Amino acid sequence: MIRREKLLNDGTRGHKQIEFRVCGMPDGVKDSHIVQHARPGRAFKDEVVDEALERMSQELEKKFPAWEFRLVELGPARFNFVWAGRRT
Fold first, then answer.
1. How many CB atoms are closer than 10 A to CB 14?
2. Is the pTM of this model over 0.70?
């Protein structure tokens, strides 16, 4: 099993990577997989994961304004955005 968490100096857990997958899109648009890795010996705090999730959702909103996506949390710092249809 891959360890995706790291214990930080303040005693909280950090994440070695943040993973996003955008899938199930129509019209021949390819699925995408984005992974952000922390620098060696470092980790992402939960606040940074929340900010990255917000940036990713804003990017999808800007890139595909007519489409709806459903957010599926797969685990800590692992998310899928699944195409849910067109907006009406």
1. 21
2. yes
C-beta separation of 5 from 13 below 8 A: yes
Specify the CATH number for the domain of residue 74. 3.10.20.10
Q: Closest Cα to residue 16, out of 55, 51, 57, 49?
A: 49
Instruction: Copy the structure tokens of residue 20.
Output: 């996003």
Q: Are strands 32-37 and 5-7 parallel, antiparallel or unpaired?
A: unpaired
pLDDT (tens, 9 = 90+) of the chain, 88 residues, equals 456 777 777 777 899 999 999 999 988 889 999 999 999 888 999 999 999 999 999 999 999 999 999 999 999 899 999 999 998 8
Could you tell me the residue range of the domain that residue 75 belongs to? 5-86
Side-chain-facing half-sphere of 6: CA atoms under 13 Å = 16
